[in-house]
Structure to design on (309 residues):
């Protein structure tokens, strides 16, 4: 097998899909058209290069809080490795439409109101659901059903409220119109997907690398003592992984922002992909049989993952 860039022999290990040619340093990846050059390959500078610097990042993390006091002293460091890890950076634009119950409606959405709706419904037959109110009303059906289970006390106060409800209706405010609000949450991501299957459990969740500071990858400029790992996740697999993870992230953000989401839908577009090599520290401790793992971005000093803390 030959490097598509310089023609030198390349010897990918079984399963490897992203490798760096040892002769010319170009990135080569296995895709549907065989081994091809990676169009764009970048690298982040190694800034946190010494064990002491890593320790000064880890110590306050491990010793924070009363429960964790002396955690680091009581733990045994089992492993501490620095290497360049390949991440596919997938540009994804997400457009998320959310339909949520609005806050006014939530306040009004008491058992009393729901029971009242049941009373009125019972009296009016299907008529209430007609016309422009139908849309908002349909979504309430379950709440109304639940309210029937409340028994007579709910119904009694419902009856008491009847006058004010009719006045409310008389003001021309459609009940359905006030119930929901549609929101749009758009976001663009340069989403990192770790290109090593063995490191999937350390896949960044909502982490942003310092992409402004990246440079074109040139293996001859990297310190010889730090390993540059090859990847075994293809570009196509990374694209579909990025879509799945961005979809989940958008849903999480929506749930953090809005209560009572009734509908959510995300449209995703995948754009450019590049391979970013990031110097990463993996540090593992044993604390009385329990493992603590920290994954630290050796460019920014930030923690990408922490497990067991
Ligand atoms: Zn080459």
């Amino acid at each position: 097998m030959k490097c598509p860039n310089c023609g030198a022999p390349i010897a990918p290990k079984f399963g490897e899909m992203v490798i760096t040619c040892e002769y010319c340093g170009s990135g080569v990846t296995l895709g549907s058209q065989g081994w091809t050059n990676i169009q764009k390959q970048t690298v982040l500078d190694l800034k946190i290069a010494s064990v002491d610097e890593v320790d000064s990042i880890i110590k306050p993390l491990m010793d924070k809080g009363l429960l964790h006091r002396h955690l680091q002293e009581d733990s045994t460091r089992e492993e501490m490795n620095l290497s360049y890890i390949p991440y596919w950076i997938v540009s994804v634009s997400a457009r998320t439409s959310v339909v949520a119950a609005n806050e006014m409606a939530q306040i009004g959405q008491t058992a009393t109101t729901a029971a009242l709706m049941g009373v009125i419904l019972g009296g009016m037959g299907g008529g209430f659901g007609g016309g422009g109110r139908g849309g908002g009303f349909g979504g309430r059906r379950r709440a109304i059903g639940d309210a029937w289970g409340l028994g007579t006390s709910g119904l009694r106060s419902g009856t008491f409220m009847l006058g004010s409800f009719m006045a409310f209706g008389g003001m021309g405010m459609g009940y359905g119109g006030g119930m929901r609000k549609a929101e749009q949450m758009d976001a663009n991501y340069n989403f990192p997907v770790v290109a090593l299957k063995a490191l999937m459990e350390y896949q960044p969740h909502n982490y942003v690398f310092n992409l402004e500071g990246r440079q074109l990858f040139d293996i001859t400029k990297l310190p010889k003592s730090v390993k540059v790992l090859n990847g075994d996740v293809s570009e196509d697999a990374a694209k579909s992984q990025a879509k799945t993870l961005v979809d989940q992230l958008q849903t999480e953000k929506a749930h953090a922002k809005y209560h009572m989401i009734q509908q959510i839908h995300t449209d995703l577009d995948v754009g450019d992909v590049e391979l970013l090599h990031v110097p990463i520290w993996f540090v593992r401790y044993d604390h009385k049989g329990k493992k603590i793992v920290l994954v630290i971005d050796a460019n920014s000093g930030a923690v990408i993952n922490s497990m067991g803390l």
